[in-house]
Design goal:
The chain is of the alpha/beta class. It has nine helices and eight strands.
Amino acid sequence: MIRYHITDRRALGSTSALIGRIARNDAEGVDLVQVREKDLQARELCALVAEALRACRRARVVVNTRVDVALACGAHGAHLPADSPPASVWRPLTPPGFLIGVSCHNLAELKAAEAGGADYALFAPVFKPLSKEDAREPHGLAGLRAACAAVRIPVYALSGITVENAQLCVEAGAAGVAGITLFQS
């Protein structure tokens, strides 16, 4: 099961607390860390990504939305919103092995992400989110199962993922689980 930590430094109280959590999660076997600090300007985001990269010995670090920052910092990839240009647009600008993931909320977005060359997709909401409000109806395990069956790229379950339901997501076909609360609490 792939474990995918999505960051939220404000929930932890500081950047230093976040870096400590990233290092701990890396040591405990987290596979991917998405630096998702939407409020930071490029310079501050670059500094945080550089710290995250130094904190990780095994986990790969991807940057939310900012392909430019990911490339400038030497991150392992970028994670894009569903309405972004497809991964195929970014591939000529990225080095071999650069990961590009896409957030997806329905089957059409999943299929578009796969057709556009994404390496993986986050599929949400599977359950009611723990870290924020979301008006969308959760897909549940049946929706996750259908989503995973609809594409060949790895799908990671997101939203409301807990230690108790993570294995159920994998049994439904997810390649792994992603979250903020799961990895920061």
